[in-house]
Amino acid sequence: MCHASKTGHPEVVRTWLVPVAILLAALAGPAAGEPPAVRVPPGTRTDAQGQLVSGRGLRETADFLAAELARRGIDAQRIGPYAARGVELTRFLPRNPTIPWIAIHVLRRDGKTLIFFVPRPKA
Question: 120: closest CA among 106, 93, 89, 99?
């Protein structure tokens, strides 16, 4: 029996959600020269592809961002961490529609912790 035919099934979520989140995060990174929307952990650098690479692990990076959001008074839902196919992901979704980003993705793959700010589409 094919589990993909059952909507909402956990295997469907793992099969589709993680690759889609990775793709969206990769496509929606900050433009070159733009400062991040919130302060990132010390030791974070921009690599040759323009991605923010944290010098900390997934949990430490996510905890730092959660504390920074709280310090700035930004109410955001934290989702994760969860893992599938060798990738770990934690997401922050702001509850305020005036925040300039629609998500922050903290992604760990291939031994690197990446931070992606997904910008809010211009109306």
Answer: 99
- The DSSP secondary structure of 16-44, one letter per residue, reads HHHHHHHHHHHHTPPPTTPPPSSPPPTT-
Instruction: State pTM to two decimals.
Output: 0.71
pLDDT of 36-49, one tens digit each?
Answer: 568 999 999 999 99
Domain that holds residue 54: 3-119
Please tell me the total count of domains within the chain: 1
The answer to whether the CB of 118 falls within 8 A of the CB of 28 is yes
Helix residue ranges, H only, the chain: 10-27, 58-71
Report the distance separating Cα 119 and Cα 99, nearest Å.
Answer: 9
Q: What is the DSSP letter of 122?
A: P
pLDDT for res 21: 52
User: Strand 101-109 relative to strand 76-84: parallel, antiparallel, unpaired?
Assistant: unpaired
Residue 79, φ and ψ in degrees, nearest 5: -120, 125
